């Protein structure tokens, strides 16, 4: 797939169908918060950490890119734990829907019933939901952590 056809590359250029608030960027990565859905809300604390360079999979990152992305993921997890008061911060690299490296980083909100597995916490009817302005405020609070304060 050419970069021109990649939805994640298009998102990095501010184009295409993928959205979300840009939380952070550096020379190796970009971090976006999950966009609001048709209801005008989303679960706060769901981030995508994406490689700046178009590479399909984790194994395609250079050692330098992987180290830089790992640092951003750790800092983002710290930020989410502090700013969202998450019970857990989970991470997943699947790479099946978009052939551009991206890592999901998402919280499990306190009180989520056990029957909602680690990847299904956002499906709990009682999960907190936030509007775009509230998500934008959260992203502002996350940025200092990603910068290494």
Task: Label this structure with key terms.
149 residues, five-stranded antiparallel beta sheet, alpha+beta, single chain
What helical percentage do the residues reach? 25-40%
Secondary-structure-based class equals alpha+beta
End-to-end C-alpha gap: 37 Å
Q: What share of residues are in beta strands?
A: 15-25%
The largest pleated sheet is described as:
5 strands, antiparallel
Strand count:
7
Roughly how many Å is the radius of gyration? Answer: 15 Å
- Count of separate DSSP helical elements: 3
* Overall 3D shape: globular
**Low-confidence spans:** none
Describe this structure in words.
With 149 residues, this protein is α+β, with helices and mostly antiparallel strands. The chain is 29% helix and 23% strand. It contains three helices and seven strands, in the order αββββαβββα. It has a five-stranded antiparallel sheet. Strands 3-7 form a two-stranded antiparallel sheet. Strand 1 (21-25) and strand 2 form a beta hairpin. The longest helix is centred in the middle third of the chain and has 22 residues, at 63-84. 32% of the residues are buried. The model has no long low-confidence stretch (mean pLDDT 92).
Brief characterization of the structure:
With 149 residues, the chain is α+β, with helices and mostly antiparallel strands. The protein is built from three helices and seven strands. Helices cover 29% and strands 23% of the residues.
Secondary-structure blueprint of this entry?
Elements: H1 7-12, E1 21-25, E2 29-33, E3 41-42, E4 46-51, H2 63-84, E5 86-92, E6 102-109, E7 130-131, H3 132-146
Antiparallel strand pairs: 1-2, 2-4, 3-7, 4-6, 5-6
Helix pairs in contact: 2-3
């Amino acid at each position: 797939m050419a970069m021109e056809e990649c939805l994640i590359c298009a998102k990095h250029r501010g184009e295409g169908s993928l959205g979300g608030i840009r939380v952070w960027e550096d020379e190796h990565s970009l971090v976006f918060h999950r966009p609001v859905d048709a209801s005008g809300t989303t679960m706060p604390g769901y981030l995508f950490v994406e490689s700046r360079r178009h590479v399909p999979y984790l194994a395609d990152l250079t050692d330098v890119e992987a180290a830089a992305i790992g640092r951003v993921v750790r800092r983002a997890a710290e930020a989410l734990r502090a700013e969202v008061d998450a019970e857990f911060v989970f991470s997943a690299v699947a790479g099946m829907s978009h052939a551009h490296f991206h890592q999901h980083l998402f919280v499990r909100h306190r009180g989520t019933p056990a029957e909602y597995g680690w990847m299904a916490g956002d499906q709990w009817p009682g999960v907190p939901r936030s509007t775009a302005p509230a998500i934008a405020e959260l992203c502002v609070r996350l940025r200092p952590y990603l910068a290494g304060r």
